[in-house]
């Protein structure tokens, strides 16, 4: 699935294309994350007059601050800078009605404005009532949040924001802009949206699941040891973990607090002799879980986990910083919340773009790789069944985008160790396929037919791994143009998948390989080519990726897992994307320059790519060989699984779809 | 020629490769610029004891500052951040003896240390006496300049530097580090090296040459109008030009103050109603020059150039800033000197990575393109003659790297409007070819033979254009391995040259195309693939380029001119590089996605690429077609020129070398 991340520094897919020649701004992005989108009411505006009145009252209420504030900023996002957020954190949606994944609301005494990007102009205008001004980001006439605030605020204004929701670097920029215009940015400890949000959902506190060595390959104790070794090497005495997937990975725990992401709300602080875990303590009552964390059995003091309530991370970090030498260095992600970052005195603070956990998590060990392979085989078996079913059912005219997505979920859920989907299925027919971030809704739901291209981008969480695969198919006869475009996309997919490159190469250097065939014909796609994939964790993870946008990606290493998903989108007509999850593996080319070693990719996804959609004359012999070898492998590996599961329809389909190209 | 630039932010070729897997540091760079290297004494250490004694005395002499300084920093470079510098600016070389292109000397009361990178460890150790400590940059044990200073300075020390030589951003970093350790960085207005440099050469003040519309295509008046239009658009009221090539380009003037670069020492300040040119006023006595600049003829006041002595830029800029509204915005390059940058009050200052002149200069107009084409045809004619001569002379055993370079210069100098070389010729045989920044010296000079690969990277300044071309040849029978490597490099060269890409694409996205064939065989080269080329200006210019290092390059546009120069270097054995200068031109592929338009390259360099070095079996049909079409074009265009010039040997060679591959 295409990635979208909030931090523009790491976001490879939400892109602002400025063509210097024509001086126009093409704004394009790749995926939507409507965390709490309700299909029935998605497109009717929310009535916000009363809410805004209450919020403005709170902005003057000295219970929350020493002096009233003149403006209040409501960013998207939670205190962990999660890509997907829990319902209790959908504060921007609550106040303005707009439920897209990206947007910032600002409320002043007189105005209410919401900034979002080109993906969401239409949706936001439909979901917000006329108390709100839609600020269309990327258009020349649209002011930045800072400029707008400065233009409308009275002198010496105070602008409030919840310091837990805003990242440290964003705070810095906003504060700098406001200060130099005579205003100030103030941290409001009580979230003012929560003050007026009467029926705000509880923060989820789902059951925790612990994973044994057969799934993780490395115990949490050994992960702590490895982390401390890195800290020692860099003379760092404390590490504050704020990203939910890093904490889940570190302790070999999983939760279900956020849909699609098997994580749980927590913080952790690891010192050289102590481990602190901040989490709703009620969740730690299960004896096997307590045993997993060794909470009751005496062990070496430096390996004892001290548990604290989730909310106490602030005071505890404060206490740590107060008690220790000013020479102690503290590692914290530069994307952590402003609130937590600022607890650490500047002299101690060492913000890092990627934490040691993020880096360690990205390089999968052999157990995780084995698990990911197993998950992908099961996932492929389910998809073979799906495609066989689609072939049978589509001619009846009864399959819709939604029912196809539901069928995919049903078939996946029959697979062993299935936990849930890894993201909302993108199931799109014909023109809907050209909407890159499409998600079928009742009012847009199209019926699959023999006349239109069908794109399905879907994936699941299994206890042994996470999947993410896109296939584009035609169940009748594709047009020559559809086949031509599909073939260019396939050539790009193969160019990345088969690329050999030196150790230490960053993913962004491979992005143009995915585009060369499209470019040669004057085509392109306006999203990145790949994202990191977690192992029974978030389907999008750092620090690696493949994108033309050169964010601070880390070099690819053997054991990393990324997606390879070039596409082509013809507005109003069709969309094509071919996505495999691929594993970075050592390559053994003829030479070995400076003993650097080489890498290449091994596809983990093993679902046939529809030959009917290919114009095989446009493929080189090497590309045809790649397709045949890939299909041979699909047949061998997934065929055995389908046979084992007794899934005849899927197996027949697989056999037919993996016939070699000649 | 390969580019080396001082500013690491823009330098695509001086690279620090850190392989995350093996944790070793490979330090590699591409070109040397021994501005004042004397072949006779290059490798004997300079005796510096007395000089250091005098310098240390100056460091205590309160004539130069209110309080003595404890350390003095001597960077490489001049006040314009030029890539090549004049002899009077070789202060770091003067004080320590080391004459490589990159290095910073720091002298304290007790110590003298010089930082340089892996290219220069050997050379620096040979050129410096034992008063100096060589600081090997890139090695783990080597401290940074800041860390070293902090470790040895007594408390509350003052570290001096000439603010004209240090760029604003470098000052900021150094000052920050020193301040946070309780020291301070102070600007010493009198350069202390100049104080002790008795026979320091004069600043050059060569004759200025003005170029008419037949060479420049646009009058300086129209360039001023275009600049002011950009300033108006961005609400900027002043622009300070500090880069010598930008000033030369703006006024359609050329000088010869710096070897290889047809520039002259000057500054310019352009306001909305005034133009100030700061230059040695003696240079403006020539009546035709005065006429060109309209210095005496009354013209519209806003188009009158007011001339000032070179040195008065500081006081004049001060006066401007004092006289104008604090809302006036001043544009200055972020690479300008600290001294000049800090004259502008912070509220006025708008530092920019690429000035409007740099951007405008990069996009050549049709007259410049025509001139560049002419220059490359003449240059190719000279090189055809050279290769014909080499073929004849090499078997006699009398041709050396130096004599071949001399012959190339002689033949070029016979061409119309020849001015000089555009950089020191890299003429290298066998193992010398693997030294990427090689320049032949008497002690390294090898004889060309029938047994070794010969690489020549050379170029010239003509009044109508600048050239830069690398050819790699074998005059006997190349080995299969040499041919194989050459062919991979050629495949990379073609992949870039023939690439079609969307308007707005940045050059760094094309870099991997140049490497794919090498990577596939486990090979690579540790430098960038291309740099911008000036038109009768610097052979290296911004803001575009092609490199795996993602510096802030500007998108490629039709009319830009860059080099395409992949290579392969086998240490101790041979070097291969194939370099053409190429023009960005519109491409017309089958489709036109979102009306963005497409671009490709047209080679300006028209010198045959040696077929003998190719393993044509490794080439695809498309690549063979490219070679044949390129050679057909060389034969047609350069053949006509050689015929016109009556150069039979060259013509015969050209005809032979452009036979189609079958």
From TrEMBL, chains A, B:
The keyword Acetylation applies. Its main location: cytoplasm. Residues 599-661 form the Peptidase M24 C-terminal domain. Keywords: Acetylation, Aminopeptidase, Cytoplasm, Hydrolase, Manganese, Metal-binding, Metalloprotease, Protease. Its EC number is 3.4.11.9. It catalyses: Release of any N-terminal amino acid, including proline, that is linked to proline, even from a dipeptide or tripeptide. InterPro entries: Creatin/AminoP/Spt16_N, Creatinase/aminopeptidase-like, Creatinase_N, Pept_M24, Pept_M24B, Peptidase_M24_C, X-Pro_aminopeptidase_P. GO terms for molecular function: metal ion binding; metalloaminopeptidase activity. Homodimer. This is Xaa-Pro aminopeptidase 1. The lineage of its organism: Eukaryota, Metazoa, Chordata, Craniata, Vertebrata.
């Amino acid at each position: 699935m295409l990635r979208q991340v909030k931090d523009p520094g790491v976001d490879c897919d939400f892109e602002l294309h400025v063509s210097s020649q024509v001086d126009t701004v093409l704004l394009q992005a790749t995926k939507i994350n409507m965390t709490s989108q309700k299909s029935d009411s998605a497109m009717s505006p929310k009535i916000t007059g009363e809410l805004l009145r209450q919020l403005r009252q709170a902005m003057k209420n000295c219970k929350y601050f020493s002096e009233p504030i003149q403006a209040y900023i409501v960013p998207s996002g939670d205190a962990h800078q999660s890509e997907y957020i829990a319902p209790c954190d959908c504060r921007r949606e609550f106040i303005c009605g707009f439920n897209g994944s990206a947007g910032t609301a600002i409320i002043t005494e007189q105005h209410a404005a919401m900034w979002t990007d080109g993906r969401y102009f239409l949706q936001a205008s439909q979901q917000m009532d006329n108390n709100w001004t839609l600020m269309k980001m990327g258009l020349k006439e649209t002011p930045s949040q800072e400029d707008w605030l400065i233009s409308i605020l009275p002198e010496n204004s105070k602008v409030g924001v919840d310091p837990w929701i805003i990242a440290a670097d964003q705070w810095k920029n906003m504060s700098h802009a406001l200060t130099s215009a005579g205003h100030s940015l103030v941290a409001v400890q009580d979230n003012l949206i929560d003050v007026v949000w009467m029926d705000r959902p509880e923060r989820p506190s789902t059951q925790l699941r612990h994973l044994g060595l057969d799934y993780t390959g490395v115990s949490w104790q050994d992960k702590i040891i490895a982390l401390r070794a890195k800290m020692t090497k860099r003379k760092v005495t404390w590490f504050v973990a704020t990203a939910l997937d890093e904490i889940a990975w570190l302790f070999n725990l999983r939760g279900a607090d956020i849909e699609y992401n098997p994580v749980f709300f927590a913080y952790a602080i690891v010192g050289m002799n102590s481990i602190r875990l901040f989490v709703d303590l009620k969740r730690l009552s299960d004896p096997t879980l307590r045993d997993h964390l060794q909470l009751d059995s005496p062990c070496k003091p430096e390996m004892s986990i001290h548990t604290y309530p989730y909310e106490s991370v602030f005071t505890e970090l404060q206490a740590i910083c107060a008690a220790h030498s000013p020479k102690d260095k503290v590692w914290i992600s530069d994307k952590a919340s402003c609130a937590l970052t600022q607890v650490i005195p500047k002299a101690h603070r060492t913000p890092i773009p990627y934490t040691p956990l993020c880096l360690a998590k990205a390089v999968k060990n052999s157990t995780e790789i084995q698990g990911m392979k197993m998950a992908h085989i099961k996932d492929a078996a389910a998809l073979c069944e799906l495609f066989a079913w689609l072939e049978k059912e589509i001619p009846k005219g009864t399959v819709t985008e939604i029912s196809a997505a539901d069928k995919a979920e049903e078939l996946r859920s029959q697979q062993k160790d299935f936990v849930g989907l890894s993201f909302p299925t993108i199931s799109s027919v014909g023109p809907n396929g050209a909407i890159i971030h499409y998600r079928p809704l009742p009012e847009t739901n199209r019926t699959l037919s023999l006349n239109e291209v069908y794109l399905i981008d879907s994936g699941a969480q299994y206890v042994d791994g996470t999947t993410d695969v896109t296939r584009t198919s035609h169940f009748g006869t594709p047009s020559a143009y559809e086949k031509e475009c599909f073939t260019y996309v396939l050539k790009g997919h193969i160019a990345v998948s088969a690329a050999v490159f030196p150790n230490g190469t960053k993913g962004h250097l491979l992005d143009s390989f995915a585009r060369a065939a499209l470019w040669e014909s004057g085509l392109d796609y306006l999203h990145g080519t790949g994202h990191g994939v977690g192992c029974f964790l978030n389907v999008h993870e750092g620090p690696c990726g493949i994108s033309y946008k050169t964010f601070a990606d880390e070099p690819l290493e053997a054991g990393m897992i990324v997606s390879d998903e070039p596409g082509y989108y013809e507005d109003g007509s069709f969309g094509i994307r071919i996505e495999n999850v691929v594993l970075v593996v050592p390559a053994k080319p003829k030479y070995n320059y400076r003993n650097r070693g080489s890498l290449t990719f091994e596809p983990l996804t093993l679902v046939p790519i529809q030959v009917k959609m290919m114009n095989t004359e446009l493929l080189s012999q090497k590309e045809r060989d790649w397709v045949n070898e890939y299909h041979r492998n699909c047949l061998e590996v997934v065929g055995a699984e389908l046979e084992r599961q007794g899934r005849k329809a899927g197996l027949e389909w697989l056999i037919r779809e993996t016939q070699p190209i000649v």
